[in-house]
Each structure stands twice: as C-alpha cells, then as structure tokens.
Write a structure and sequence with these properties.
The complex is a heterodimer.
Chain A (H helix, E strand, L loop, with lengths): L10 E3 L3 E6 L2 E6 L5 E4 L1 H11 L4 H12 L3 H17 L3 E3 L3
Antiparallel strand pairs in A: 1-5, 2-3, 3-4
Helix pairs in contact in A: 1-2, 2-3
Chain B lengths: L8 E3 L8 E6 L2 E6 L3 E5 L5 E5 L5 H19 L4 E3 L1 E5 L2 E7 L5 H9 L4 E4 L2 E7 L2 E5 L4 E5 L5 E5 L8 E11 L7 E4 L3 H10 L7 H17 L1 E7 L5 H9 L1 H4 L2
Helix pairs in contact in B: 2-5, 3-4
Classes of the chains: A alpha+beta, B alpha+beta.
Chain lengths: 96, 250
C-alpha cells in the first residue's frame, strides 16, 4: 500500500488505539487487531509529538535541536515513522 | 437454566487447569470452574461461593482463594498477577514466570530465609494512597511431592498484612546458565513481562486500555527484573539472588 504523508501533515491516533509510556519507550495497543507495538526512545518521542498535533517537520525540528542531528534527516525519519504508523492502522491523517 | 451459549467467556481445560466460564445472570455475574467451584457476584460486588458436589475440597479451597477471588477483584477493576509473592519488613517481592519457572519453589525457599508468604499462585494488587500493595491471600505453598504431584504445604511464615510492592522477578529457566543471574528490565520489556502474567477474564476495549495503564503504573513503582536460572539450580541459590532485590529496589 502506497501511503503519502507529507512533512506538514497533522496526524492523530485512530479510535481503537491506546498507548502508554514505559520508561523511555512507548507501548501501542491496537485494539482492532489485538497486537501491541513498541517504539524505542526516539520513536516514542516522535509518537508523542505527532499525537500532540505537531507535524513531522515540527517534531523533526525538536529532535534535531535536542539530539544535535541534521534537520532534514530528523524530518525524514519522522515522515518514515509516520508512514509506517499509518500503514499499520495506528494513526491517520487528521482532517483539516 | 440458560443455554450454554449464554456464557460470555468459556475457557476449556488446558494441561491441568479446570474448565472456566462466566456469564451475567441472577442479577449479577456467575462464574464456574466446572465441576469444582461456582461463584455468584451480586450487583453490589459481594461474592458467594458454592463447591460442586463431589469436588476435590482442597482444589475448591485453592480456587476460591486464588482464581475466584481474582475474578471478583477483576469485576471491581483490581489487577491480579499469576505468580507468588513474599514480604519482608513490609516490602514485597513478586515472582512471575511460565509454568515450571519456579515461582512456588522459590517463594518457599525465600520463606525459609526470613520472608513471609503473601501468595503462592495469584498475587492480589491494589493501589492505595498512590502505592501499589500486595494483599496476603494464601497460607500454603503448592509444591511437587516425590511423585511430581502438586499439593499444599503450610508455609514457614505467613504474612498477615499487606506489603508495598517493591520488586517483580520474572523467572526463567535457561540451560546456558551455570548460576542464577538477574538483570533489570526497562521499557516495553516491562510491559511484556507483566502482560504475560496478568490474569484476564474479559477482553473488552475498556479492560485492555485499563490494563495497559495499570501495568504502566505498576512498572513505575516496582523494579522489574529478569531472573535466569540453570535447570537444576537449588531453590536456595535463586532465593539468595532474589533476596537482594529489596536491597537494590528504590
């Protein structure tokens, strides 16, 4: 499935998904499929940024400053994870 | 009598377990460990137990104190873990793990070095004043005899009051080990260990959401460790390792 998510898109959790932080990681429970997913420390930061309504570009900017990494690379990583999360049915593009 | 398909949840016997089922009926909820024990929980949450005709009395008593009470507690939104628990100086260590990992045996070994038994099979947890505590629920260990058949044995020391949850040990037999060892778990591995030990009687969205939150809160209070032991390790050696958990817990 080809999913297009832009760096300025706003995403949201889908209805039957529930997430909680465990230390610096996040466990995401998919109540539709019954599976759970884990996000490492960086993935957890991206998840929490996206569900708070920030765009991949904004979250990438946060990560670039905090971890002293290249901005374009950080944004690209955020977009990649956002695409993966949407593909797995854990997030959706928020309607304008 | 209602037809069988009225049961909301029905779990067939597996290994040595008793078939279990529950449904809403008689102005409340009815659960049965078929052929052994029946519990009716009324609308106010009060349970009444009935032992089945011809049932093994020891097994019925064990189920009443463990699985049946866990069911009643679940209806009240209280979590229970499949495992054993011991306490010392008001602090509790919980042992979880697969069948055969040594939960009961290690709890018995801990009770021989100064710990008190809180639970042998089902750990009853409750959040009180912001602190997860373990209630005392059992006074006997269920240990294998010479013929590998499990039966009750009175604990050397029995806890009479709740203890604060400090540490959880996820026990695992590892044939590559030469001595017991432990390592603290972090992040999603804490969820994995606690989730595997959680007793569930229902799987609605609300129950699963609440469970994730509860396990996260438990993991924030208690230090969770993976404890690996060789297949033929002495319970006393594992107990000595676990005894140190209270020293390293915050």
């Amino acid at each position: 499935m080809n999913i297009a998510i832009g760096r300025d898109d706003v995403l949201a959790e889908v209805e039957r998904v529930h997430a909680r932080r465990f230390d610096d990681e996040v466990v995401v429970l998919d109540l539709n499929g019954g599976d759970y997913f884990t996000l490492n420390a960086t993935g957890a930061r991206i998840w929490e940024g996206l569900v708070s309504g920030r765009t991949p570009a904004q979250v990438g900017q946060d990560l670039a400053i905090e971890f002293d990494v290249e901005y374009e690379q950080a944004v690209s990583d955020c977009v990649s994870l956002a695409v993966d999360l949407v593909a797995r049915g854990l997030m959706r593009r928020s309607l304008p | 009598m209602s037809p069988v398909d009225d049961w909301l949840v029905s779990v067939p016997a597996k290994n040595e377990t008793v078939p279990f089922r529950w449904r809403r009926a008689e102005g409340g909820v009815v659960a049965e460990w078929v052929g052994v024990l029946r519990v009716h929980v009324d609308a106010s949450g009060r349970p009444s137990f009935t032992t089945a005709n011809g049932a093994n009395e020891q097994l019925a008593a064990k189920l009443k104190n463990t699985a049946a009470m866990a069911f009643v507690r679940a209806l009240r939104g209280l979590p229970s873990l499949h495992g054993s628990a011991v306490a010392k100086s008001g602090n509790a260590i919980v042992c979880i793990g697969d069948s055969g990992a040594g939960k009961s045996t290690v709890a018995a070994a801990l009770c021989s070095i100064g710990f008190e038994l809180l639970a042998d099979d089902v750990v009853a947890l409750e959040l009180i004043d912001g602190c997860w505590i373990v209630h005392p629920t059992e006074e006997v260990h269920w240990l294998e005899d010479a013929s590998a058949k499990k039966g009750p044995r009175k604990a050397e020391r029995v806890a009479t009051r709740p203890a604060a949850l400090k540490a959880i040990a996820s026990l695992r037999v590892d044939s590559s080990m030469t001595a017991p060892s432990m390592a603290r778990l972090h992040g999603a591995r804490v969820y994995g260990a606690l989730s595997a030990a959680t007793l569930r009687f229902d799987a609605t969205d609300d129950v699963r959401r609440r469970e994730l939150n509860v396990l996260g809160a438990i993991g924030e209070q208690a230090s969770v460790f993976e404890v690996l032991r060789p297949p033929r390790s002495r319970p006393s050696d594992v107990a000595r390792v676990l005894g140190r958990l209270l020293e390293s817990a915050p």
